[in-house]
Design a protein that fits this description.
Its EC number is 1.1.1.22. The chain has 447 residues and is of the alpha/beta class. Helices cover 44% and strands 13% of the residues. Bound molecules: uridine-5'-diphosphate-xylopyranose. Uridine-5'-diphosphate-xylopyranose binds next to helix 10.
C-alpha cells in the first residue's frame, strides 16, 4: 500500500520504517528539513535499538523516502498516519493538539480522492471526532476522506518489536465510515494480524480513551509501588522482595512494579495531566483526582533522592557527585522529563559538583543542562567522587564490579535510584549502599 506518515518523531519514524518492512511503500513527512536530510541518508536522529539499521535498509530498498511537502503526501498516499506530538501546554495540564490540527488544516484541502487518515498520536478524547468532521469539510473529496483512530502503545527501547508484534491493535472508527477504515487497517496490518494479534474495533472516543487509560494505569502502578516503598523505608522492609512476592499474583503481575526514581519521558507524565484536564472539561474531574496523587508521589521521588544524597553526605556544598544515567529509561537517549536529569540538576543547583555519565543521552542533556559536568565513561564520572548515584538502570551500570570502582572514588558510597544493583555485593565490597525502599542495612535485605 502507499502510506504517508506525518510527523517524524519517535513514533513516526518507527511506524514508517516498520510499515516499509511489512512491504508497503512509505513516505515520511516532517517540517524539519535537517531531520529529513538525516533520515534520507538512513540516519535516525535519536537512539532506538535497531531503528537505524531498519531505516537504512528500507531507504536503500527504495520503500521508504522522506519529504517536507504535504502536497507530496496527498499526491502519493492512500493511507495517512498522523504521528505528530501532543506535548503538555505551557503552564497548563492540558495537551497541546495544535500540531494535529495543523496536519488536518494543511493536508485535508489537498485530498481529492478517497483516503483513510489514521490518528496515532495520544489526543484528548473528542479530538478524533472533531478532526473527522473538519477533514471532511476541508477535503475536496468530502466524505470519501475517512478519519479513524489507531492508538500506538510502543515503548521507547522496544519500539520495533512493539510495532510489529503489538499486544493488540485497536481501531476506533465512526459508525458511517467504520467499514472502510476497518478494511484498510486490516490490509495495512495484514501480516501482523496473520500472527493472531487481537484486533479490536471500537468507536473513536473509546479508542482515544484506551490509550490514555493504559498510560494512566501504568503510571498508577509505578506510583503505587513507590508509595509502598516509602512505607517500606519507614518500616525497614524491602520493597524489591515485596514486589517479587506481589508479582506472583496473576491479578497483579510483576511488570511495572519497580520502585525507584519513578516515571518520566515524553508520555506518562504529560498524559496523566492531560487526562485530568480533559476529564475536568467533560465534568468528570472527580473521577481522576487520584491521578494528582499519582503525579505527586512520582515527583516526590526526585526530591527524596536529593535529600538522601544530602543525608548520606552531610551537606551538598562542594560534594563531588557522580551521576550514572541521565536518560528517562535505559536503551533510550530521551531526556524529556527525565527523573535522572532532574535530580542531577537539583543537586548541582544546591551546591554539589555533579558529573554525569550516560551511554547515549549526553548530547541531549547538554542542550538542557549545559552547566552540569559530563564524562565519557563510568570511571571518568566517578573519579574522586564523594558519592555515586545510579539513576537510570543501564545494563552497563548493573555490570559494574564494586571492587573496581572502589579505587577510583574518594568515598565508597552508592545510592541506587533504580534498585538495579545487588546490595549484598556492594556492601560486601565495603560500600555504603542505599536503595529506595530497601532499608538501611544488611539486615533488611533478607539476612
Ligand atoms: C510509555 C508506555 O509504556 C507506552 O505504552 C506508551 O506508548 C508510551 O509511554 P515509554 O514512555 O517508552 O512508554 O516508557 P515506559 O517503559 O512505559 O517507562 C516509563 C517510565 O516509567 C520510565 O521513566 C521508567 O523508568 C519508569 N518505570 C517503568 C518505573 O519507574 N518502574 C517500572 O516498574 C516501570
Amino acid at each position: 500500500m502507499k502510506i504517508a506518515v506525518l510527523g517524524m518523531g519517535y513514533l513516526g519514524v518507527t511506524h514508517a520504517a516498520c510499515m516499509a518492512s511489512l512491504g508497503h511503500e512509505v513516505l515520511g513527512v516532517d517540517i524539519d528539513d535537517e531531520k529529513l536530510a538525516k533520515l534520507s541518508s538512513g540516519e535516525v536522529p535519536f537512539f532506538e535499538p535497531g531503528l537505524d539499521a531498519l531505516t537504512e535498509q528500507m531507504v536503500r530498498a527504495g520503500r521508504l523516502r522522506f519529504s517536507s511537502s504535504y502536497r507530496d503526501a496527498a499526491d502519493f498516499a492512500d493511507v495517512h498516519f498522523i504521528a505528530v506530538g501532543t506535548p503538555q501546554k505551557r503552564g497548563e495540564f492540558a495537551a497541546d493538539v495544535s500540531a494535529i490540527d495543523s496536519v488536518i488544516e494543511e493536508l485535508a484541502p489537498m485530498l481529492t480522492r478517497a483516503v483513510v487518515l489514521f490518528g496515532k498520536s495520544t489526543a484528548p478524547v473528542g479530538t478524533a471526532e472533531r478532526l473527522r468532521v473538519r477533514a471532511q469539510e476541508l477535503a475536496p473529496a468530502g466524505a470519501d476522506v475517512e478519519l479513524a483512530w489507531n492508538p500506538e502503545f510502543l515503548r521507547e527501547g522496544h519500539a520495533i518489536k512493539d510495532t510489529l508484534e503489538p499486544d493488540r491493535l485497536v481501531l476506533g472508527a465512526a459508525r458511517d465510515g467504520a467499514g472502510r477504515a476497518i478494511a484498510v487497517a486490516k490490509e495495512v496490518y495484514s501480516s501482523i494480524l496473520e500472527k493472531g494479534i487481537p484486533f479490536l474495533t471500537v468507536d473513536l472516543a473509546t479508542a482515544e480513551l484506551v490509550k490514555i487509560s493504559a498510560n494512566a494505569f501504568l503510571a498508577t502502578k509505578i506510583s503505587f509501588i513507590n508509595a509502598i516503598a516509602e512505607v517500606c523505608e519507614a518500616a525497614g522492609a524491602d520493597v524489591v522482595q515485596l514486589a517479587d512476592a506481589l508479582g506472583y499474583d496473576q491479578r497483579i503481575g510483576r511488570a511495572f512494579l519497580n520502585a525507584g526514581l519513578g516515571f518520566g519521558g515524553g508520555c506518562l507524565p504529560k498524559d496523566i495531566r492531560a487526562f485530568m484536564a480533559r476529564a475536568g472539561e467533560l465534568g468528570a474531574d472527580q473521577a481522576l483526582t487520584f491521578l494528582r496523587e499519582v503525579d505527586a508521589i512520582n515527583m516526590r521521588r526526585r526530591s527524596q533522592m536529593v535529600e538522601l544524597t544530602r543525608e548520606v553526605c552531610g551537606s551538598l556544598l562542594g560534594v563531588r557527585v557522580a551521576v550514572l544515567g541521565a536518560a528517562f529509561k535505559p536503551d533510550s537517549d530521551d531526556v524529556r522529563d527525565s527523573p535522572a536529569l532532574n535530580v542531577a540538576g537539583q543537586l548541582q543547583l544546591q551546591g554539589a559538583a555533579v558529573n554525569v555519565y550516560d551511554p547515549k543521552a549526553t548530547d541531549n542533556c547538554r542542550k538542557i543542562f549545559p552547566t552540569l559536568g559530563y564524562s565519557a565513561s563510568v570511571v571518568d564520572a566517578c573519579d574522586r567522587a564523594d558519592i555515586v548515584l545510579v539513576l537510570t538502570e543501564w545494563q552497563e551500570f548493573r555490570d559494574i564490579e564494586p571492587s573496581e570502582l572502589a579505587s577510583i572514588v574518594a568515598h565508597k558510597r552508592i545510592l541506587d535510584g533504580r534498585n538495579c544493583l545487588d546490595p549484598q555485593q556492594w556492601r560486601a565490597s565495603g560500600w555504603l549502599y542505599r536503595g529506595f525502599g530497601r532499608g538501611r542495612s544488611e539486615s533488611s535485605n533478607g539476612f
